[in-house]
Amino acid sequence: MKHLLATEGLDVGTATTILDTAERLKATLLGREVKKLPTLRGRTVITMFYENSTRTRVSFEIAGKWMSADVVNVSSGGSSVGKGESLRDTALTLAAAGADCVIVRHPASGAAHRLAGWLAEAGTSVVNAGDGTHEHPTQALLDAATLRERLSTVDGRKVVIVGDVLHSRVARSNVHLLSALGAEVVLVAPPTLLPAGVRSWPATVSHDLDAELPTADAVMMLRVQAERMHGGFFPSAREYSIHYGLNEKRLGLLPEHAAVLHPGPMLRGMEIASRVADSPSSVITEQVRNGVHVRMAVLYHLLAGEEEAA
After folding, report:
1. Annotated binding site, which residues?
2. d(C-alpha 260, C-alpha 277), whole Å
3. Alpha-carbon distance 119 to 3, whole Å?
4. Where does the Aspartate/ornithine carbamoyltransferase carbamoyl-P binding domain start and stop, copy by copy (predicted)?
5. Quick one: average pLDDT of 191-215?
6. Binding site as annotated, residues for carbamoyl phosphate
């Protein structure tokens, strides 16, 4: 594996190997006072974020440092991007400076793919940390890892994804990955928040959340991405919450074993009630923990896996 750009088309064997590696890394680090492995010593990982991020950026930085890589953070505001430098020139500069892997988040869909093409000659790996409304593959992998941990398997499970599917790269990546791993995926959203062509995705579409919850093994609430909305997609926050928010009453409709997920940041009271987010059914904190180990596994397979196999 040279890059991780999307879950659409990602080989099931590769995805499973990453998840298995993440499990082993988590077990290896369990109980250690010093969480440090020498695996990527001498490697340089650069995070390049053109959009705000807490969970993704921090977990990639921790993942790299726990594997002894040198991690450098670059933001658009503190780099030559602020002076008008193009994405291509910035990427080539970082590769020339010695980057073994560039982790990029960008508001334009397809940016990570373009970056991988520009850096092909340099031999630098690229990880897509979110590109526009396109994909966020490591988020889908950590969600799958969390579901495997909570439900023992993804295969045969019903996962309901609720909310702003139109603007969600998380939803798109999860649909492709979870369905490939054998899950039944159901998208629940108002018609205005579903993308064109969604019927061709490997998922079913519903507008009735209450009807889907009693048979769900997991429900994933999506953030309403107001910053990407230009116009009215629903009457009001209150109206949205009434029809598509996960409150305590709806939590009671779920089977006892069901897991509640959210990629964050959460809009408490609109998408999800605080008591639901903090309930025993919630695995939101576990998603963050598993994100570190999944991203460690991704960096391992990009930068060290083939060498160790040899």
Report:
1. 55-56, 83, 105, 136, 139, 169, 223, 264-265
2. 8
3. 11
4. 2-149
5. 95
6. 55-56, 105, 136, 139, 264-265
